[in-house]
Structures are given as structure tokens and as C-alpha cells.
Write a structure and sequence with these properties.
By secondary structure, the protein is α+β, with helices and mostly antiparallel strands. The protein contains twelve helices and 25 strands.
Length: 444
């Protein structure tokens, strides 16, 4: 079999897809770029990098050829990088790509002989068209994969999908699936042609639907509207990342820099090339940990931009995950050390899975607590407070407040950073939590 494979990503990362044509190499004219295929791949991949899409196209093409009983395969790719890495002449460094490289090599071991070569993009137009079909019309892409290959007309890769493959209904043929973002809470949803009917996170009692009703946006529109991310040093080894002008509920993330790797605490929605570059200059992201669902935001896009790094979310909040990705790690129990000096603590309260991050090296070695709004530093920053819903002013049950206090007693920390810029209790953190809980309970 001869396999022509290609990946596509609109943005890096962005909506991505894989396309491939599998051709019977024994047929006359098999090496022609427009040779009729015996099978095709047209697969949406969610939010991914272009390199991830290129490698996935190779893996899917090889797996399909093996299913069809091929004994030998010849890969023809327009990515010189993938060809050189596949042949072992160039090193694969990105963790996610290492996994895909391993999958491809495992698949190749099933064939008695294989080869890979690079050709220009024009020679790979069939695979390219299938990748774009998967982005533009996922339903038509599914039909293309399932249809007999002879029915996948040549006009598909000359730029026009055939009537047999076109989607039914009123959607325009040039509609592009989007990873829609709730404009009120900032949470991103999986690729779809139309926005979701509702945002379950905003319809929950702890959040709200905006006064103008449910509204949706996209990453591209946020950038076009002039939103940018601001980086602000909080202390040595801790940088705040927030979006200007303010978006959603004004979330910020905190990048904790440690010798074992950087951890992004909580997440924000906006992820543009400038942000990716800046974070990489600061050492990248080894892991993401999130306090509760109002900070899930574009967690899968952030993870994808940094090698599908793990995203730690407590399993008690699994139902609120709207856009799971390969990096998602659901953890259980009261605490979890995700790397040296970085421990997640399940306090509960705001949500059953509400979590804080204990950074032993923070505050010049005296320890820091990063809390989201499980514990919120209030206007008098000597104090903190606890709520079931802050925007709707629903108080937290007494037993939940007591549980938060008990969960934190084993940990040493001096400083508390909560969800918004400037909301910091700089000293005497444990005493602030204890006296604040006592005051809260006294006024119930």
C-alpha cells in the first residue's frame, strides 16, 4: 500500500485534523498524486498542534493499511520533519510526539517492508483536502471514511465535496467547526459547527447566565477584539497571567516555577502565540492543576500547547469537565503531590472537588497556598472567606467550612494567593484561615 498522509491545524494549537489516502501500490499509476484510493482517512482531532496532526495522520494511515492486510507500505508525506524523525535521522523531543512516534514505529513493525519519503505539498493534495474536509464538515468526513473509496470523488480533493458527501440540512458547506467558548464563564467546549445549546457550568447555582443571555465566542474572536495576556511577577518563582481587557469572570492563572518543572495553577481562556512563546521562555509547563470548574477555561488547549501536559482535576468534579483532552488526570483522595514541593489538597466547599495548591517553596521557603476561590482573600486582606456561590451570595454550610480548616492544618504556609490580582494575604496565613472561619461561623 502507498499512504499519502497530511495533518492540518488552524492555529498552533488550534482546531486540527488528519487526512490520508491509502492506495493499492500494485495498480498502474499508483504513484500519481490523484491515483484512486482504496480507503481514506478524514478525522477531526480537536485542539492540537500541526505536528500532532501530521503524526496522527501517519498513525491512522498505517493502522488502516494494516487492517486491510497490507504486507508492505510506502509513506509519502509533505512534512520533511516527520519523514526525518520517522527514519531516525532527527530526534523527537516533544513528549506527545514521542508517544505518536512510538505508535507509528509499532505499527510499522507489522509490515515486512516499509519506506518513507518527502514530496511537496502539491503532491499531497488529496490527503490535504481530506484533512480540511474533517475541519469544515465532520459529518461529511465520517461519511467519506465509511463509503467505498471509489465513491469518494476526485472533486473532493480538487476543492469541492461531492453531493454524496455533503452534509444534509441548512448548514453552509464552508462552515468551520469551532471550539466554542462561553462568554460568561470562559469555559471552552469541543469542536462543533454550532454553539452548544447551553453552558451547564453557568446554569448551575454557583454561577450565572449573563444578563444578555447565553453568549458564545471563539479564541480567534478574542484575539481579534484586542484581548492580550498580561504577565505580572508576584514573588520569585511565581507569575500571574491575566487577560486584558477583562474577559469572563476575570480569572487569572498563576505559574509556579520550580526546579522540577513549572505548574500552571488554575487556567484562563486566552491562549495566543505570544502567550505560548512567553511561557516557553519561562520554562514551559510541566503540569496544570485546577481549583474548580470556573477555572477549567481552555485547559485542553493549554495542555496541547505544552505537549499534552497533565491537567489535574479532582475526580469529585468530573461531571463538570466539558472538553476532556489526553492530558486530563482525575485524582482522588485528600491530597496528591504532583512534583516535589507541590501538593494538591482537596478542601471541598465551593465544589466537592475544590482544591488548593500548597507550594512548600513559596514565600521564600515559608510556604504559600494558592486557593482560587475555595478560600477567598477579602478586601481586608488579613481575612479570608468561604462561599458556596460568590456571585449569587449563597453561603457555605458550617460543616464545609470546618472541613476546609481541618484539611489545611497539616500544611505549613505563610502566604495566601486567591483568584484575583491583589487578593493576597502576605503573612500569617494559617491564623488568617482559623480566625476567619471562627468569624464566619459566629455570624451564621
Amino acid at each position: 500500500m502507498l499512504i499519502r498522509a497530511d495533518g492540518a491545524a488552524r492555529g498552533n494549537p488550534g482546531p486540527a485534523s488528519a487526512g490520508a489516502v491509502i492506495i493499492d501500490a500494485d495498480r498502474p499509476g499508483a504513484s500519481d498524486p490523484d491515483a484512486p484510493p482504496v480507503a481514506v482517512i478524514a478525522r477531526p482531532l480537536g485542539t492540537r498542534t500541526n505536528n500532532y496532526a501530521e503524526w496522527t495522520a501517519v498513525v491512522l494511515g498505517l493502522e488502516r493499511a494494516a487492517e486491510m492486510g497490507a504486507a508492505e507500505v510506502e509513506l509519502v508525506l509533505d512534512s520533511k520533519l516527520v519523514v526525518e524523525q520517522l527514519m531516525g535521522r532527527w530526534r523527537v523531543k516533544e513528549p506527545t510526539l514521542i508517544t505518536l512516534h512510538r505508535q507509528a514505529r509499532t505499527a510499522l513493525a507489522r509490515f515486512s517492508r516499509w519506506s518513507a519519503r518527502h514530496e511537496g505539498r502539491a503532491s499531497n493534495r488529496a490527503a490535504d483536502a481530506l484533512a480540511n474536509l474533517a475541519l469544515d464538515d465532520p459529518a461529511a468526513a465520517r461519511r467519506a471514511e465509511m463509503a467505498p473509496a471509489r465513491e469518494v470523488q476526485a472533486d473532493l480533493w480538487s476543492g469541492a465535496a461531492s453531493p454524496e458527501l455533503a452534509s444534509s440540512g441548512s448548514a453552509a458547506s464552508d462552515a468551520v467547526p469551532e471550539a466554542w467558548i462561553c462568554a460568561t464563564c470562559g469555559v471552552q467546549y469541543p469542536l462543533s459547527l454550532e454553539p452548544p445549546a447551553a453552558c451547564p457550568i453557568c446554569e448551575d447555582d454557583r454561577q450565572y447566565v449573563g444578563w444578555e443571555g447565553q453568549r458564545w465566542t471563539t479564541m480567534e474572536r478574542l484575539v481579534a477584539a484586542g484581548h492580550r495576556n498580561r504577565f505580572t511577577a508576584q514573588e520569585p518563582g511565581l507569575v500571574s497571567i491575566g487577560t486584558e481587557p477583562k474577559f469572563a469572570i476575570g480569572q487569572r492563572a498563576l505559574l509556579v516555577q520550580t526546579p522540577a518543572g513549572n505548574v500552571l495553577w488554575d487556567c484562563i481562556t486566552l491562549l495566543d502565540p505570544a502567550t505560548v512563546t512567553r511561557v516557553r521562555e519561562m520554562g514551559g509547563i510541566a503540569a496544570i492543576a485546577i481549583s474548580h470548574p470556573h477555572f477549567y477555561d481552555a485547559m485542553t488547549a493549554w495542555s496541547a500547547a505544552f505537549g499534552d501536559c497533565p491537567v489535574y482535576i479532582h475526580a469529585a468534579d468530573e461531571e463538570w469537565v466539558q472538553y476532556p483532552g489526553p492530558g486530563l488526570r482525575l485524582w482522588e483522595g485528600d491530597s496528591l503531590e504532583i512534583m516535589p514541593d507541590i501538593t494538591l489538597v482537596n478542601t471541598g466547599g465551593h465544589f466537592p472537588g475544590s482544591t488548593v495548591l500548597h507550594w512548600a517553596g513559596g514565600a521564600e521557603g515559608r510556604g504559600a497556598l494558592l486557593t482560587g476561590d475555595s478560600i477567598t482573600v477579602v478586601s481586608d486582606r488579613r481575612w479570608v472567606s468561604f462561599m458556596y456561590s460568590f456571585p449569587n451570595l449563597i453561603p457555605l454550610a458550617d460543616d464545609d467550612v470546618r472541613r476546609i480548616v481541618e484539611a489545611l492544618r497539616p500544611f505549613r504556609y505563610e502566604r495566601i494567593y486567591s483568584l484575583w490580582e491583589g487578593r493576597v494575604t502576605p503573612t500569617d496565613g494559617p491564623a488568617a484561615v482559623e480566625r476567619s472561619a471562627a468569624r464566619y461561623l459566629a455570624h451564621r
